[in-house]
Structures are given as structure tokens and as C-alpha cells.
């Protein structure tokens, strides 16, 4: 594990159908700009083409736009659905972004999350993971500037290479999406690239964290590569307010619409079916944090213990709260959670304790210095020309002559 845990967001995004989609995308851009100002390290942007909630079709276009508005935050595709793209075209676009952003782009990859996307393109859902593996096999060398020839049942490469040498050497950073199954971890290990654990806080994903990392390490050893925990990113939903009560009240704004999407469209078992409170269910299961900064920090510490160490925590951006409360949550995390895992106040704390521990010595030295100046002043001016109240403040209620 790295000494400084990085922080970021995984922005699908999720936007309910009761608002202006143009303004929704603009707020996503504004969010990344805010994160850049607050000192977040990374923002990952999704790719989706159906179902109406996850509005961004091209993470590359989004990244190119927001790169112009930000200074230092790194920007990743979260994730590019590899079966949807010819590998050479995708590699060329990512390489161009690598140059445009001066190395700030990251390349997250996966098989595609929505079956409805694959259906519209005539891609068999059963083949999506195989096609992801086939694409990744050629994308890794392409993005390193190598020449590739390969034929599959869905793409052909004939002496394919990028026109421009990669800006990032040896390559743009690559990460493979992983949930419960070992598919993503195994692919990451074969190529020695990073892992994006999308469902790290879901029960299945949480329980599989250590196992999937072990699978990645084994696959890396078999391929003569190594894995780097600093390139392992864990994703989970988190909304923070100053108090737990405030946080729970704020997420009522949009959590039901979010749950509807996953229950009725994405078909993931996130919503309770027994009539219980959904916030209670998400919090008590460990899937989400809806609370104060201490509870957010406890969740990250829990993930560190379960995983054995990772490089970055990414908040799954949910739009549970309205815009003002949501941005306040990001600021509270930056102010009160991130420093605990980045050593930001280590020297400040040591300095404060050192000053407190040595206070008697420092006060004594200060008092002696003041006393010496008082004596010097009295010796030069005498006491006759000094007002009584000043003499009292100096501890000289009596004139030296009277005291003698």
C-alpha cells in the first residue's frame, strides 16, 4: 500500500429523468472542476448508450472538455467498453488524449455493463468478456507504440501501429474493471495493469477483494509480470454531512430514483425487497456510507483491512443528494477524511505536541527575556517617570529605593 491514499470519483453518471440532461452533463463537468480545486487525484467517466440514466456516451469527449477546465486532476475512462470499439480506433483516441492532457489521462476498460447497449449493436452478451480479452491483448502493445497484427471474428489488425509515440512512457496507465467474478482481475494480472474494483463495498465484491487480488497476482506471475497495489482502485457510494442525521435527510432527495434504476433496469440487487428503509439497508450492509466524516473514514479503514491495501478510493457518484449538499459532501471528504489517509497533518500534529510538551520551558525562557528587558528599562529610566499601573504590570509596585 502507498503511504498516501489517493481519492477520486467514479462518475457513471446517474441522472434521473425529471431534469434537463444538458444541464445534468454540465454539472458533471462542474463536479470535476470542483474536485480539481479541492485536491482530488482522479475522476473516472463512464460510457453508456441506453436506459436513459447514465448519460455520457463518450468518456473521451468528456475528458477532452474537462481537461481544458482543470489543472492537475487525472482523468480516466471509467470504463471504455472494449467490445464496442475497433481496438486501433480506440487506441488512437486514447493516445491523442494522452498528448492533449500532457499525461493526465488514464484508460479504464471493461466488457460493457448494460446488456441493452450490446443488444443494439448486435453483440452477443455471452461474448462480451471474450471480446474484452481479445481487445486488451492488442490494446496494451498498441498503446506502448508497438506494431500489432491479429485477426479475430470481429476485428482485424494488419501491421497496425499508432502514428504518434505515446506521451506517457511506456504507456498510458491502464486499469481493468472487476466486480465479483475473477475475469477482470485475471485480465489485469496477465498484462500487469491496474484493477478497478467497481463493487468493492457490495457484499460479494467486498468478500472477494483479497481473493481477486490474489488471482491477479497469480496471473501476473504466470505471465512474467508484477502487480502494483498503488494501481488498485476501490469504488463505493459515500455521502457525507456534518452529522449522520443531516446526511440521511439529504439523500432522501434522490436515492429512491437511483434504487429504481438498479432494481428495474440494471437488475442489481441493491434495493431491499422486505419493505425496510433503503438507507438502513445500504448502510447496515456496509455497501454505502451515509453519515459524518468519522463514518466515512471508518469505511475506508475497513476496506484497507479487508483488501490488504490499495492505492485509491473512488466515491461512486450517485446524485442521491441535491447539488448543494452533494458538493458539500465532496468538500467535507476533502477537508476531514482525505488528510487522515494522506499524512497531511502528521508534521502539524508532531509540531503541536512538541510545542505543548515543552511549553513550561518556552514560557520560562519568555518570562526571563521579558524580565531582563524590564530590568534594563528601569535601570535606564528609573521608576520616578513610570506610571504606577505600568510598574504594577512589571511587578514593581514599590520603588527600588523604598524596597531597599
TrEMBL record:
Q: Which Gene3D superfamilies match?
A: Luciferase-like domain
Which InterPro entries does the record cross-reference, listed alphabetically? Bact_Lucif_Oxidored, Luciferase-like_dom, Luciferase-like_sf
Q: Where is the signal peptide?
A: none
Q: Where does the sequence pass through the membrane?
A: none
Q: Tell me yes or no: is Secreted among this UniProt entry's keywords.
A: no
Pinpoint the Luciferase-like domain residues: 6-305
Q: Which domain of life is it from?
A: Bacteria
**Keywords of the record:** Flavoprotein, Monooxygenase, Oxidoreductase
Q: Does the record bear Oxidoreductase in its keywords?
A: yes
Against SUPFAM superfamilies, the record matches this protein to: Bacterial luciferase-like (SSF51679)
The Swiss-Prot or TrEMBL record describes its family as follows:
Belongs to the bacterial luciferase oxidoreductase family.
The protein here is known as: LLM class flavin-dependent oxidoreductase
Amino acid at each position: 500500500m502507498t503511504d498516501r491514499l489517493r481519492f477520486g470519483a467514479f462518475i457513471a453518471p446517474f441522472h434521473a429523468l425529471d431534469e434537463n440532461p444538458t444541464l445534468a452533463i454540465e454539472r458533471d463537468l462542474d463536479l470535476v472542476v470542483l474536485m480539481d480545486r479541492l485536491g482530488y487525484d482522479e475522476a473516472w467517466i463512464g460510457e453508456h448508450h441506453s436506459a436513459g440514466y447514465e448519460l455520457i456516451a463518450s468518456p473521451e469527449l468528456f475528458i477532452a472538455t474537462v481537461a481544458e477546465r482543470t489543472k492537475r486532476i487525472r482523468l480516466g475512462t471509467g470504463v471504455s467498453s472494449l467490445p464496442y470499439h475497433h481496438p486501433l480506433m480506440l487506441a488512437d483516441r486514447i493516445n491523442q488524449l494522452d498528448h492533449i492532457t500532457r499525461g493526465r489521462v488514464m484508460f479504464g476498460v471493461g466488457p460493457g455493463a448494460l446488456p441493452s447497449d450490446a443488444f443494439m449493436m448486435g453483440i452477443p452478451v455471452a461474448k462480451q468478456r471474450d471480446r474484452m480479452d481479445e481487445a486488451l491483448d492488442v490494446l496494451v502493445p498498441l498503446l506502448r507504440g508497438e506494431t500489432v497484427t491479429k485477426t479475430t471474428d470481429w476485428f482485424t489488425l494488419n501491421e497496425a501501429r499508432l502514428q504518434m509515440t505515446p506521451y506517457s512512457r511506456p504507456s498510458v496507465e491502464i486499469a481493468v474493471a472487476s466486480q465479483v467474478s475473477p475475469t477482470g482481475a485475471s485480465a489485469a494480472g496477465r498484462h500487469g495493469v491496474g484493477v478497478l474494483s467497481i463493487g468493492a463495498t457490495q457484499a460479494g465484491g467486498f468478500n472477494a477483494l483479497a481473493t481477486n487480488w490474489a488471482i491477479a497476482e497469480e496471473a501476473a506471475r504466470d505471465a512474467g509480470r508484477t502487480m502494483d497495489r498503488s494501481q488498485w482502485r476501490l469504488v463505493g457510494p459515500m455521502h457525507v454531512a456534518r452529522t449522520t442525521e443531516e446526511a440521511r435527510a439529504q439523500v432522501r432527495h434522490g436515492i429512491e430514483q437511483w434504487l429504481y434504476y438498479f432494481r428495474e433496469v440494471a437488475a442489481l440487487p441493491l434495493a431491499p425487497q422486505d419493505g425496510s428503509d433503503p438507507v438502513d439497508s445500504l448502510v447496515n450492509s456496509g455497501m454505502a456510507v451515509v453519515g459524518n466524516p468519522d463514518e466515512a473514514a471508518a469505511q475506508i479503514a475497513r476496506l484497507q483491512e479487508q483488501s490488504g491495501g490499495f492505492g485509491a478510493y473512488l466515491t461512486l457518484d450517485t446524485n442521491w443528494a441535491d447539488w448543494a449538499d452533494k458538493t458539500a459532501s465532496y468538500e467535507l471528504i476533502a477537508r476531514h477524511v482525505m488528510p487522515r489517509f494522506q499524512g497531511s497533518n502528521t508534521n502539524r500534529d508532531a509540531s503541536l505536541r512538541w510545542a505543548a510538551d515543552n511549553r513550561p520551558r518556552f514560557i520560562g525562557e519568555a518570562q526571563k527575556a521579558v524580565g531582563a528587558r524590564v530590568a534594563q528599562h528601569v535601570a535606564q529610566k528609573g521608576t520616578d517617570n513610570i506610571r504606577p499601573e505600568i510598574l504594577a504590570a512589571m511587578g514593581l509596585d514599590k520603588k527600588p529605593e523604598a524596597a531597599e
